[in-house]
Amino acid sequence: MHPPLRFSIAPMLDWTDRHCRYFHRLMSKNTLLYTEMVTTGAILHGKGDYLGYSEQEHPIALQLGGSDPQALAECAKRAEDLAYDEVNLNVGCPSDRVQNGRFGACLMAEPKLVAECVAKMQQQVSIPVTVKTRIGIDEQDSYPFLQDFIETVAEAGCETFIIHARKAWLSGLSPKQNRDIPPLNYQRAYQVKQDYPQLNISINGGITDLEQAETHLRHVDGVMVGREAYQNPYILAQVDQRIFDAANEPLSRHQVVELMLPYIEQHLANGGRLQHISRHMLGLFQGCVGARAWRRHLSENAHKPGAGIELMQEALAKVPLAQTA
Question: Does 1 count as an annotated binding residue?
């Protein structure tokens, strides 16, 4: 079981890769970081290193996409062997591509299959197996529908649910629209915690600052922040003190950039491009004087051959130190 109070960053496709996670970890030691969703097929049959990460990223969870219990169990085992701290099953992604593979949000309609997946994974590993879900799909968005899903999957041994407090429309809306158009219903997630106090319930969807997070934590066990943590990453600097009551002093924005430089140098030495990392850092100075100059300098130059840490230092010099304290 996880500690009762959690703060995490949502798995976001094309965003929360290992470079993004390393960057986020500098600002918060305690936040749980998630990989992008990785399909079982990619892990079992793909050529890439889909499970690689840096030691510094702990605590880190692997999010899996799939619906074959055996394949999920095998991937969970690989995750545990690689010392991941949690394995999470995606029952929330609404994209067509995902539905065709019979995973993501469409699995809400098959709670027994999800329960079987969870049970098989748990037989293989001792790390927590968790489920990220929506509050409903299409016309199936009543509270009893969500209750049936939660009860069935909890009976299989799942103790932690991350609830994106919107339903998903499986046809007619794009994944992007599904993040905004279906209305948020936080009360639905609160109700789950009330009715199943023994379960660990985290809430996700539309959370844009730590005040909101603290409000949610009066009703549920954890908060998962998505786009805001990506677009305005410096909100993480206050998380350890405010959410986890930790004593560590927040780094300044300039310190965060300085600490990224050795990591960037290593990436470049291994044949990587500056842009692979700098794209995750564009929002670091949001709200500060010089933020636009920082973003522009990186956006216009980081993709160029030979771009290195000098470019980061040039961009940093455009942000007055006094303005970012």
Answer: no
Which one of the listed residues 93, 106, 117, 158 is annotated catalytic? 93
Q: Is 11 annotated as a binding residue?
A: yes
Q: How far is CA 209 from the centre of its chain?
A: 16
Residues 116 and 160 in one domain: yes
**Domain that includes residue 267, residue range:** 253-324
- Percent of the chain topping pLDDT 70: 95
Same domain, 228 and 263: no
What are the C-alpha distances in Å from 63 to residues 37, 39, 90, 229, 315? 5, 9, 7, 18, 34
Q: Which residue, 209, 242, 275, sits at the end of a domain? A: 242
User: What is the torsional sign of CA 185, 187, 188, 192?
Assistant: positive
pLDDT score for 2:
44
Tell whether residue 132 is among the known ligand binding residues: yes
263 band by pLDDT with thresholds 50, 70 and 90:
very high
Q: Which two tokens stand for residue 111?
A: 């709670």
Burial 109-122 (b: 16+ CB within 10 A, else e): ebbebbbbbbbbbb
Q: With a threshold of 0.70, does the pTM exceed it? A: yes
Examine the pLDDT at 5 and tell me if it is beyond 90.
Answer: no
pLDDT digits (tens, 9 = 90+) for 104-116: 889 999 999 999 9
Last residue of a domain, one of 187, 211, 242: 242
289 and 311 in a single domain? The answer is yes
Mark whether 20 is an active-site residue: no
